[in-house]
Design a protein that fits this description.
The chain has helices spanning about 5-25, 40-55, 70-80, 100-105, 120-130, 150-160, 210-215, 225-240; strands at about 1-5, 30-35, 60-65, 90, 140-145, 165, 180, 200-205, 220. With about 240 residues, the chain is an alpha/beta fold. The protein folds into two domains: about 25-115, Rossmann fold; about 120-230, Rossmann fold, CATH 3.40.50. Strand 8, helix 7 (about 210-215) and strand 9 form a beta-alpha-beta unit. Helix 1 (about 5-25) runs parallel beside helix 8 (about 225-240), helix 2 crosses helix 8 (about 225-240) and helix 5 (about 120-130) crosses helix 8. The longest helix is centred in the first third of the chain and has 19 residues, at about 5-25.
Length: about 240
């Protein structure tokens, strides 16, 4: 079994981004909008902040109360977007139920949208490429149909004309899968008994029971240190790309 080391991959990406920032003398600033006090969201925000500090990107955290009205939040985003010092903007998900995520995310101008290219797709692509894992002629199962993982990964696979099954619960299909990309966000969903021996496991959503699955998988991403660091690195890579919009 081979551990897919996301930390090493992320380091390579961040070094490249840091070099590009230095060579082009770019002044980049990432603004993260955070609502409420979701502990998991706070962890993700700190990861982004540490990565920014490591490669010389300014970081600004904008906190708003969980009960903020949607119209007020949209006004705040509009004002933040007009700040010329801010290169990229992220609205940290999930948002409170009373706020329409589609409207809020679409309110971020394309030229400042740090997630204009899906960081999750970028991360999955980097991991597979780094370990020379091909998607061609493989039985692929994508678990989850959400905004952050399922939808963008499905669109990416379709664009490459790669056949796959998109499910949101464990079925017999998973036992036949050569490659499993999981983003359901349900801890312990995937266990060793449910997978094929030698399967490639890309755990984006923290769905894998690592102890049992690692005993059968051929390749597996750990948590922490798997997909997460690469997602953050890809996000910062996007900041450089926003300069082209």
């Amino acid at each position: 079994m081979i551990i897919l080391d996301g930390k090493k991959i992320a380091e390579k990406i961040l070094k490249k981004v840091k070099r590009e920032i230095r060579e082009k003398q770019l002044k980049l600033k990432l603004a993260v909008i955070l609502l409420g006090r979701n502990p998991q969201s706070a962890v993700f925000v700190r990861q982004k902040q540490k990565a920014c500090e490591k490669i010389g990107i300014d970081f600004k955290l904008l906190k708003f109360p969980e009960r903020i009205q949607e119209v007020k939040l949209l006004e705040k985003i509009k004002a933040i977007s007009k700040d010329d010092s801010i290169t990229g903007i992220i609205v940290q998900l999930p948002l409170p139920k009373h706020i329409n995520e589609d409207r809020v995310l679409k309110s971020v101008p394309k030229k400042k949208n740090a997630e204009i290219v899906s960081p999750v797709v970028c991360a999955v692509e980097h991991i597979l490429k780094n370990y020379k894992i091909s998607l061609r002629n493989k039985n692929i199962v994508l678990i989850g149909k959400g905004r952050l993982v399922g939808r963008p990964v499905a669109a990416w696979l379709r664009k490459q004309n790669i056949k796959f099954f998109n499910i949101d619960k464990i079925t017999n299909r998973i036992k036949k899968a050569d490659i499993i990309i999981s983003g359901a966000g349900r801890p312990g969903l995937i266990k060793g008994e449910t997978i094929k021996s030698g399967a490639v496991i890309i755990d984006v959503g923290g769905d894998v029971d690592f102890e049992s699955v690692s005993q059968k998988a051929g390749y597996i991403t750990p948590i922490p240190g798997g997909v997460g660091p690469v997602v953050v690195a890809c996000l910062l890579q996007n900041l450089v790309k926003t300069k082209n919009y």
